[in-house]
Amino acid sequence: MIEGSIARRYAQAVLDLARDEGIAERVGSELDDFVATLERVPVIREVIVHPGFGKDERKALLHAVLERSGYARITRDFLLLLVDKSRIGAYGEIARAYARGLDEAMGRVHATVRSAGPLDAGTLARLRQHLERVTGKTVVLESQVDPSLIGGLVTQVGSLVFDGSIRTQLEAMRSRLLRDEPAIA
């Protein structure tokens, strides 16, 4: 594992190149695909990251994998560079840093909404629009069902949480009753 700042520098460098070429989204998808491939085929990962194998052997295997991938030249060259610089073991951390940098460059933010039951498309669209007005960014919204909420919504945008769940309201009411505080109407 490499330090986060180093991963960010590698990610930013390849992001800058990809943006110059107009293929930043494509490279991001390819880096995500590479991470998924190495998770599906751990023997490839083991060989390309293991220092017991020579750099030439690791590059030859990676090159063979990349030949069949259809990845852009920037992606292929970048992954081979990571082997050269003995940083290939941090491919996942670098891919995540790339995704964060790409989202920032594209003015995107990821949000998660949890609800007791599935939300319809109209509700999700209104929620997305509201969050876009609040954040000033394009919102990529993920919806999750969490029956423990009883009702209401819990929305998280980055580290900011909006908790409008019935469960939280009931817990607050219980706490006030235990302290003999008057309920707020």
Structural features:
185 residues; alpha+beta; Peroxidase, domain 1; Glutaredoxin; 4 strands; 15% strand; elongated
How far apart, in Å, are the first and last alpha carbons? 53 Å
Give the total of domains.
2
What is the string of SSEs from the N terminus onward? HHHHHHEHEEEH
Detail the poorly predicted runs.
none
Mean pLDDT: 90
Strand segment tally: 4
Gross CATH architecture of the largest domain: Orthogonal Bundle
Instruction: Give the percentage of residues in beta strands.
Output: 15-25%
Sheet of most strands: 4 strands, mixed
Q: Helix coverage percent of residues?
A: 55-70%
What CATH calls the topology of the largest domain is Peroxidase, domain 1
Q: Over the alpha carbons, how many angstroms does the gyration radius reach?
A: 22 Å
Q: In CATH's first tier, which class of the largest domain applies?
A: Mainly Alpha
Summing up helix and strand content along with how strands pair, one would put the structural category as alpha+beta
Strand order of the largest sheet: 2-1-3-4
**What is the name of the CATH superfamily of the largest domain?**
N-terminal domain of the delta subunit of the F1F0-ATP synthase
Shape: elongated
The count of helical stretches stands at: 8
